[in-house]
Amino acid sequence: MLIPSPRRRLVILGTCCLAMILTVMDVSIVNIALSAIRSDLHASVAQLQWSIDGYTLVVASFLLLAGSAADRFGRRKTFQVGLGVFSLGSLLCSLAPNAPALVAFRVLQAIGGSMLNPVAMSIVVDTFPDPRERARAIGIWGAAFGASMAAGPMLGGLLVETIGWRSIFWVNIPFGILALALTARFVPESRADWPRRFDLVAQALVIVTLFALTSAVIEGRRAGWTSWPMPAGFATAVAAAVGLVTWESRRREPMLDPRFFRSLPFAAATLVAVLAFVAFNGFLFLSSLYLQEARGMSASAAGLTTLPVAIALTVCAPLSGRLVAAGRARVALVVAGVAMATGALLLTALAPQTPLPYLLVAYGILGVGMGVVNAPITNTAVSGMPRSHAALASAVASTSRQVGASLGVALAGALAGAGIESAHRPDFAAATHVFFWVATALGAVIAVLGVASTGARARASAARVALLLDAPPDAVSHAHSTYRSAPLLTE
Q: pTM (2 decimals)?
C-alpha cells in the first residue's frame, strides 16, 4: 500500500478514531442510563447486566473473526460494513419496547462494533509505518479512547435527563454516517500478505467459552452460588477453552494463533487489558446505580460527578503515549496499576453519605490508572507483531478489553449480591465493598506485570515470535523448529 500524504494520514487517523469513539462511548454511555432503563422497561439487575454484557460479549466473540475477515477481504470494506451494522443496531436499540428486545438489538449493534476497533487499528498501523509516527498516532488514539470512555457518562447523563434514555443511541447514527463517508473518500484498501483461513470451530468455541463463563456469574448470583448454573457454566467454559487451545495448536493457520502468547510482552498486555477493564467496567456499573439510586442524584448530576474520571482519562492518555514512545512502557504500566489500586482502595470505604470531595478524589485517581494503561496495551499488542498480522494482533488486544468489560459487569453484580437488587436499600454501598477490594488486588497485579513484562527476556521473546510470524505459511514449520532451538536470552 502506498503511504498517503501527511494531511491524508491525519484524516485517516481521525476517521478511525471517530469509529472507535462510537463503540467505546457506547459502553460507558449506557451505564449512566441504567437507572432510567430500569424504570422505563421494568428491567431486573440481570437484564441490566445483559444490556451491557450482551454488547461486550458479542464484540469480544467476533473480534478475531472480524480481524481475519479484514485481512482477507479488505480492511476498508470490513470497516464500512461494521459502521453500517452498528448504526442500524443503534437505531433499533432506540426503539426497543422491552428489556429482552433491547438486549437483542444490542447484540446486533455489537456485531457491527466487532468490525470497527481492531480493523481501525490495523488501518492506522498500515498508514503510519514509521515506529515513531505510529507511536504518536497510537497516543492520539489512546487520548480519543480515554476521552470517549470519560465523555460517555456526562453526555449520557445530559441526554437522559433532557430527552430520554433512547437518545443515547440516536447520537451514533449521524456520526456513523459521517465515518462511512470519510472512509469511502480517504481510506485506501489494504489486505494482509497471507490472509488466514476462516476457522468456524474456533469461532464457536470462543463464543461458548465467553458466554458460559459470563452466564455462570450473572445467573449464578440470582439462582444461588451452589445452584446448578454455576458449576455447569464454569465446567462448560473450561471445557470449551481447553478444546480451543487444543484445536488451534493443531491448525496450520489458527484463528487465535497460540504462538502470539509466546511473546511475554504480548501475553502480559493481554492479561493487563482483561484485569484493567474488569476493574473499570465493574466500577462504572456500580457507580451509576450508586449515584442515581442510592444517593438520589439526577442522571446529569451523576454524569457530572464522573468529571474527574473524564479529566484524568483525557490528560493521562496522551502522556502515557509519550512514555511508551520514549521506551518507558514499564513506568506507564506501574503507574497505571498503582493508581487503579489506590482509587479502588479508597472506594472500599464507600458509604451512603460519603463526602463528595472524597468521592471525586477516588474517581480521579482511578481515572488516572485507566488513562495510563491503554497506550502500553495497544502499543505492545501491535508493535511487536509483523504488519501482516496487525489486524489479528489488535483484535486479540481488543478482545481482551471486551472480555474484561464483560467480566467486570458480571463480577460486580455477583459480588454485590442482593444488596443491589434494590439500589435504594441502605446496605447498597456496603455491598460494593467486596468488588472494590478485588479491584484493588487487580491494580496491584497490573503493576507487577508491568515490571515482569518489560525486561530483556521479555523483549527477546517478542523478537523471536515476530520473526516466526513474519514467515509465509509454507515456511512456518521451518521457523517453528528454528524458534525451538534458539537459546533463551537472559537479562
A: 0.77
